[in-house]
Design brief:
single chain; mainly alpha; two-stranded antiparallel sheet; 7 helices
């Protein structure tokens, strides 16, 4: 895979896509039967589209700019743990998809890449929630694990412990989020990619 160089126009485009992602993070929608601390947004859309058009390095930079914009506007309520988790999970979705697509720039490869990215992202989100997010709320915010489980059990009766929370909360949430993002990307990417590449071209 050839590394795509970053010129001034590409950096500007990365900034704009990252800022768009940061703004999209603020438009959150709760999903039925999902844990109350998980809200759906489309912030990954500019990340995956920008990554397909500009490469994996650009995608990572877009994720970073998104989080910086979010921090600048809203700050952090999780001592940066939530932002770190978001960075890891976002990269787990976009990077596998981009790497697969970059080897064969076809719709089939893009679709395959996003499916693989969705699976890796979901597994990463399980690890992140079980070992980063939930321990943060327990150890730093003073919540008990039982309180968190009860909150989730109230919206999804199948949740009875941390692993059923992961299975019936984290897994379907991320499959839905990445799935919707992937479908939208699959539909609009070809129309958007041409002007993006033309703008970024040296």
């Amino acid at each position: 895979m050839k590394t795509k160089k970053l010129n001034v126009k590409k950096i500007a485009l990365i900034g704009m896509l990252g800022a768009l992602g940061g703004i999209l993070m603020m438009f959150k929608t709760p999903l039925p039967f999902m844990p109350p601390f998980m809200d759906f947004d489309l912030a990954a859309l500019p990340e995956i589209i920008g990554g397909f058009a500009l490469g994996p390095l650009a995608a990572v930079m877009i994720v970073a700019v998104k989080l910086l914009v979010k921090l600048a506007i809203l700050g952090t309520s999780t001592a940066f743990v939530g932002e770190l988790s978001n960075f890891i999970v976002s990269c787990a979705y976009v990077l596998p998809a981009i790497w697969i697509y970059d080897h064969h720039k076809e719709k089939k490869s893009a679709l395959k890449g996003m499916v693989v990215g969705t699976v890796i992202c979901t597994l990463t989100a399980v690890i992140s929630n079980v070992y980063m997010i939930i321990p943060f709320y327990v150890n730093m915010m003073g919540w008990s694990l039982d309180t968190i489980i009860q909150m989730c059990h109230a919206v999804c009766p199948l949740v009875n412990n941390i692993w059923t929370l992961a299975l019936f909360g984290v897994v379907p949430f991320n499959l839905i989020k990445c799935g919707i993002t992937s479908v939208i990307t699959f539909i609009v990417y070809k129309k958007i990619s041409t002007p993006l590449k033309q703008f970024a071209r040296e």
